[in-house]
Amino acid sequence: MEIILIRYVPDFILRQLSLGKFKGSFKGFVLLLDIVDFTGVMEEFQGEGQGGADRAGKLLNMVFDAPIRAIHRHQGFVTLFIGDAVCAVFAGENPDNLRLALQEINADNLALKGLDSVSKHLHIALHKATSFGEITWEIFPTDHQYEYLFSGKPFVEVSETISHQSEIRCSETIQAIKGKEGISALPAKPAETKSEDFPSLNAEIAKAWSVLFLHRRYSSLFPANEIRAIVPCFVKLEQSRDISQAIKQIHFLADRHHGYVNKIELSKNGLIILIIFGAPLSDGKSILQGGDFSIAAIESIPGISIGFSCGFAYTGYIGSTKLWEYTGLGHSMNIASRLMNLAKSGEVLCDQNAWQELHESYQLQPLKAIKLKGLGQATRYYSLQQRIKSSRFLFKYSFVGRHLELEQLCSSINESIALRRSRILYISGEPGQGKSRLAFECLKSFEHCRQAIVYCQEDSHQQMQVIAQIIRELLGLTDDLSAQELKDEFELSYQSYFGKEESVYPEKSTLASLLDIEYSASLWQSIEIGIRSEKQAEAFSKFIRFFVSQAPLLMLIDDAQWLDEQSLALLKDISFEDSAALVILAPCRSKSNGSRVNLPLPHLGSFHLALEKLPEADADSFLKQILQVSKLPQDSLELIY
């Protein structure tokens, strides 16, 4: 079966990897092709929806198809697609192949025959820059997706030279070797690259190696060109830092927060990495995933600076009919890139669009408006600092619809309380259907009961995270305490609930271990390693049974499909008397095959509520809240309706 991937990897890199080589260098020429003022073109297309996406994809193909064919015909190869630019390399010290490729590119002149079929009034031109020197390459294996880098002085020179005003911009290196006329003064004689320098690679073997360079989450995807909402995040690593380790950490965090590592390049200012949230896959939480990723990256990787934005952009393919790569292009991409360059080491900067989506969930410090290069109006930007932990269940808009579903949940809880029976109530549906909001609204009717509200994180490597949250909630422990403050508060809370220790109460030091609190010379420290998990399960079971024996206990475990294995094991080990009432509300996403989640908690009865889409009238009411229709002047309302 043919393997079609959305990520481009040069055959040169695949050849080296097949030979077991991971780094090397050679002398050669670098060619950079960049579409002139393409941002304005993309903004025009973005306003046309899917039709604009199709036209943008067609235009990009028309612009780069002939140049890429010319590059490959004359023994060059594309190293990287960079936004609306293509970078290529011609190995060896003889520049004739580069000159012949340029002659063909200029002959095509990119008059772009057939451009009228895309737009009647577009004027498209390419900037071209060339340089020569030592080119180094390296392959970086990671657990998620291999990466490769080409670097060296020629790449820095072409990026600096591309902004100069001339038909073909030759770097100072080429001018010093060949005179001011540079490449145009060279003879038109094809050069040959020795076959032993770059041995050929079987196409099937190349495809087999190429899958290593794409995360398995995206390996079966081939999405269409679209105009869609994305969150582009640009990360810059200072030159003095360990590139290999940084790439591994970025991939670990991007995988955890569902970001697509789209591009890595080495510039004169350091390593640049582009991560896209919301494309090619989205689960409706892209802006929060981008924010959480940025905070985690800044905290764990020294020497990085980050810029990100959010908004609609072209997501699709750049390249030719036979060689392409999936990426994003548009205003939000440019803003994120500019903010990355503006950010200091250890800083995350975002724009006004991101602030509007994040200010209720994160602490953001307003900075100032600045005129960014290549962008028309001044941009207001902010420093993203940390998540507001209490914002998880704050809802901006009033509850709309779902009254029948709410009644069903409340009735089931009342029945459980009346019969003193423990039960788990599943609320199943797709992302964004209001599962968490419905569960939270349900809890409002049971404020007389003891409650614990906790949530799960996808791909969390923090085992027992839900158990720790439950203990904190029921003991009323404060967030963001130092280790000693947490221990002091736990001690006071434990004494207030359990007083002197008895066999029916959870052992203090063992319960404390679930919060990573240590007591010296304690019973917990004397327990053999092999039975510690068993003792923790016993302590947690006693802890829950104590609260259930006092009054009905309601737990909301949000995104319960991501419950970590150790937390699930401890919940499974709880045993209840017939007279106990524990009710768990479990908003869950449906499985990928559409089936519902069933957690292995045999001691709990179960109730399943599957959410459908909001009725049209309720959806209309909700949209009016979001758009703040009630605040619009009457004349505006008359225009709308």
Q: Helices, strands, pairings?
A:
Layout: H1 11-18, E1 23-35, H2 38-46, H3 49-73, E2 77-82, E3 85-91, H4 96-108, E4 126-140, E5 147-151, H5 153-161, E6 169-170, H6 172-178, H7 203-210, E7 226-237, H8 243-256, E8 260-267, E9 270-277, H9 286-300, E10 304-308, E11 311-319, E12 324-329, H10 331-342, E13 348-351, H11 352-358, E14 362-370, E15 379-387, H12 403-419, E16 423-429, H13 435-443, E17 450-455, H14 465-475, H15 483-498, H16 508-513, H17 523-526, H18 532-550, E18 553-558, H19 565-572, E19 582-589, E20 605-610, H20 616-627, H21 634-640
Parallel strand pairs: 4-6, 10-13, 16-19, 16-20, 17-18, 18-19
Antiparallel strand pairs: 1-3, 1-4, 2-3, 4-5, 7-9, 7-10, 7-11, 8-9, 11-12, 13-15, 14-15
Helix pairs in contact: 1-7, 2-3, 3-4, 8-9, 12-13
Amount of beta strand = 15-25%
Structural class: alpha/beta
Report helical residue fraction.
25-40%
- Distance separating the two termini: 53 Å
The overall pLDDT average reads: 83
Shape category = globular
Sheet with the most strands, sense and barrel status: 9 strands, mixed
- How many distinct beta strands? 20
Uncertain segments: 193-199
The rounded Rg comes to 29 Å
- Treating each run of at least 4 consecutive H or I residues as one helix, how many helices? 21
Q: How would you portray this structure in words?
A:
The structure is a single chain. The chain has 641 residues and is an alpha/beta fold. Helix content is 37%, strand content 24%. The strands form three sheets. Strands 7, 8, 9, 10, 11, 12, 13, 14 and 15 form a nine-stranded mixed sheet that branches. Strands 1, 2, 3, 4, 5 and 6 form a six-stranded mixed sheet that branches. The longest helix has 25 residues, at 49-73.
